[in-house]
Backbone:
């Protein structure tokens, strides 16, 4: 669905995305997570063709983003502020969608509008934040894209509106048979709807993969502080959290964790993500916790 090779985007001297090499398979709902300023919006805007790379290459659905009108028709995009036209009615938005998109599905659009309680005569400027998000999602999905790209569309919504938006997103993806990329800093939303994860921080990809594989490849060890230098070879230390006597060590062991004398616990998605974000914010922390020769970095 998306393939990037050494993808880099700078704004002046400031790097927004650095040396990003990434392959995302089709048929997934991808969660793109990271702190503010991590490069999430930049990656999605590159994927939509709204901006161009400083260097490196990016293919979306096998082609350069926005290379042709036909390629644009295969991608639906909901920007961060879920933009709609304030003076347009709901019906105006559907008419505009029908005029601009060759594969527009009017029946789908009308059915979804009715399901979320929008009236065709309502002006978009008088809708609530949740209603505007539902309208923007409907317009993006009714063009029947192969790929839906959503840039933190539910960040400003209250919990009830966010729940409705996420439920409708899952339904759209299932109905369309599409792939989707959802950028969010709300890990609950990602865990609820996504089966593939990309963690961005500091303008770089920290980890990526199918969620079940990532969780199976990460472990939490409870290690006495005076035995941290005895971690098995071949594991990658992601994060270390010290207590009085023991340390909680988040490790990655893709080929399976070697036998250890210490208690081992499964890792939750939130803990794994926060471990990578913490390491990206202070890259010396994990290295300082364990002698460099004992771990694979």
Residues:
């Amino acid at each position: 669905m998306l393939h990037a090779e050494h993808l880099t985007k700078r704004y002046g001297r400031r790097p927004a995305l650095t040396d990003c090499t990434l392959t995302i398979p089709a048929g997934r709902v991808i969660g793109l997570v990271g702190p503010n300023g991590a490069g999430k919006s930049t990656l999605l805007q590159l994927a939509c063709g709204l901006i161009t790379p400083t260097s490196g290459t990016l293919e979306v659905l096998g082609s350069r983003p926005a290379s042709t009108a036909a390629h644009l028709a295969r991608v639906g995009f909901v920007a961060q502020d879920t933009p709609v036209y304030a003076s347009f009615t709901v019906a105006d938005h559907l008419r505009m969608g029908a005029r601009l998109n060759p594969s527009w599905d009017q029946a789908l659009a009308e059915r979804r509008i009715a399901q979320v309680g929008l009236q065709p005569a309502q002006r978009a400027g008088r809708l609530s934040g949740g209603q505007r998000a539902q309208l923007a999602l409907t317009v993006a999905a009714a063009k029947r894209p192969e790929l839906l790209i959503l840039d933190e569309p539910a960040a400003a919504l209250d919990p009830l509106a966010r729940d409705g938006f996420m439920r409708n997103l899952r339904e759209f993806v299932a109905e369309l048979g599409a792939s989707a990329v959802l950028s969010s800093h709300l890990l609950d939303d990602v865990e609820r709807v996504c089966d593939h994860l990309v963690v961005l921080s500091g303008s770089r990809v920290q980890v990526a993969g199918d969620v079940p594989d990532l969780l199976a490849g990460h472990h939490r060890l409870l290690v006495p502080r005076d035995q941290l230098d005895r971690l098995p070879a071949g594991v990658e230390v992601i994060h270390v959290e010290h207590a009085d006597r023991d340390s909680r060590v988040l490790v990655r062991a893709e080929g399976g964790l070697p036998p250890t004398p210490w208690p081992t616990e499964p890792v939750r998605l939130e803990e794994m993500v926060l471990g990578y974000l913490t390491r990206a914010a202070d890259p010396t922390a994990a290295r300082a916790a364990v002698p460099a020769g004992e771990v694979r970095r």
